[in-house]
Amino acid sequence: MADAIGQVLSLAVGVAISPVPIIAVVLMLATPRGRVNGPAFLAGWLLGLAVVGTIVLVASNGAGATDSDATPATWVSWLKIVLGVLLVLVAVRQWRGRPQAGEAGTLPKWMQAVDTFTPGRAVAMGVALSAINPKNLLLTVGAAAAIAQADVSTGDEVVALAVFVVIGTLGPGAPVLISWFMGSRSREILDGLKAWMGMHNAAIMAVLCLVIGARLAGDGISGLGS
User: Fold this and answer.
1) How is the chain split into domains, by residue range?
2) What is the mean pLDDT of residues 152-159?
């Protein structure tokens, strides 16, 4: 189980450090429904990661993620290489789209409407940003494939996936915890976090995708050579 958890830690951190969802939660917390919509968004985020991870894990096990001698299946290694290359391409796109000196960072237009969100829409947005967002989807697929490749028991796979989901939720979950435990004092902290992440969103995403993409591709190449 330790090997399976070790395989997904960096991928989970990559999911957790996602500026747009963190900013979305901060904005939701500042609305009249913030005390409900913030946790509702987190529920959707958890659900999205868990569902995608479970589907890929079941499919990987069904397709045979390891060979009879417990070595990684060739297709899993190729999958890691493809995921790694895709993440590197996302990194390049993010870096090219970063704001130049003196320009303000751009954020999705839907964020302007967060004050009108119902709890149901907050849940749906959490699912969309965790499960459908390209970067998170690639990381979750990679994590589930890595767990299946570790050749551990079903119970250990469930634990490893749960660890991935929990760690991947720490980023958007942090503003909610700050709001709960610090009350009115949290506003200054959250506003500062929102401003910093909004300004550096593209650079953060580019570095994360580049590092994790290189790691996945490297793992895949090593698997082909074993």
Assistant:
1) 2-225
2) 87
